[in-house]
Fold this sequence. Notes:
By secondary structure, the chain is mainly α. It is 64% helix and 0% strand.
Amino acid sequence: MDYSLELWSYRVSCMDLEEPEEEVEMDTGLPSQLPVLDLKPSGEEEKQTVDLGVEFAVVDTPRDRQAELLKEKKNLLLNVVCCSLVNKSSAPDQNAWDNTDSVWTRLRNMAKEITLADPEFILKVAVYTRQELNIRITANFLLALAAHLPESKPHLRRYFSAAVQLPSDWLEVTRIYSTCFSSSLPSCLKKALVDKFKQFSEYQLAKYNTRKHCCKHSKKKRKVE
């Protein structure tokens, strides 16, 4: 009994010596309002920023100006071609065809300038004029002109067959070239004529055979006499 009483008194004395631990509360709550940051650049920083509209502006180079000028010349040539149907100028194989105010002189002068930059353009216009606009004499004049200009000569055979559709076109191209440019045909035109002649049918050649028609007329005159 004495031993248990001493043990109980020892425990009570130890409990009195222990100090209670203070509970620390953690403040885990977020502030109700976040701080506002000033992100505007200062004066020096504004000077260092690059103005994209000024720094990377489109520069009008001489090449761009030449391309725009060439486009205007092509549009003008197309306008003259379209108006050639109602133009009152003489045919290119007649007298006074090369007057300064004639449509053929305008086409020749414009084509000379355009072919220096685009040698195939007047040939493309010739094909378009014959197939879409159906202006035969203008298309044939452009073919003869392309055979005369040095820059467009190498490309003549590629477009000739598409632009010449009838034997009458075939004959008119040679007549225009002989009258307007030279009495001797260039080799490029001769080769193009041979290529196209092979594509004509017997019916087309017989229909446009001028010798045959001449023989018929001569026989009729003899019968009348």
